[in-house]
Amino acid sequence: MTGSPLQSVSNLIDVKTVQVYPPGTTSDSPLAIAGTILTGFMLVVFLAGLVVSPMAGLMSLSVFQQFYLHAYVNYTIPPNLFYFLKNLRWSMLSFLPNLPALGFTSPDYWQNNIPQKIQDLDDTINFCKTAGSVVLYLIVYTVLALLVKLFSTKCMMNRPMRNLFIEVYEQRVKFNFLHEVLWTYFLPVVFYGMLQFRHFSSDSAM
Prior knowledge:
mainly alpha
């Protein structure tokens, strides 16, 4: 007597896996440390460039900002690379005091509906908290510009110093004030501004 052939049975279980990098997690890998060191060096170049060569400082800042924004790409990237990019976040000047964010609390529906990658990097999409430091930067820049304008007049009794301030006003303030402010914060304002759209999907490329 011959038996019937055995049935081949396979059980398939769909398991959805989500790979995230917790926001409180840091990495001591060489790449992550390199990201911090490079950002610090860039900020020194940026600050020195504002005095000596503003074009070099602004270009360095813009390049690092563009590199940092790659961390938001909705794709699983190696942890070392992710923490390297994450440590470039200081190029967005987010360490500056954020005046609009003082005492501001994001509504729960904002926190519950934002993509995980953004939570890992910024913890919020609120514009006041992510790009609000532009307000202090603009205030400081405006005050300095007004002081340069004031010292370029007869209020400065020392003639050589007055001529120096006149030159600074003509070359940096009169024609480059708005340009330098926009170049410094163009990427943060535009990028975080787009995150304020009412309808967006976490399934997109960003």
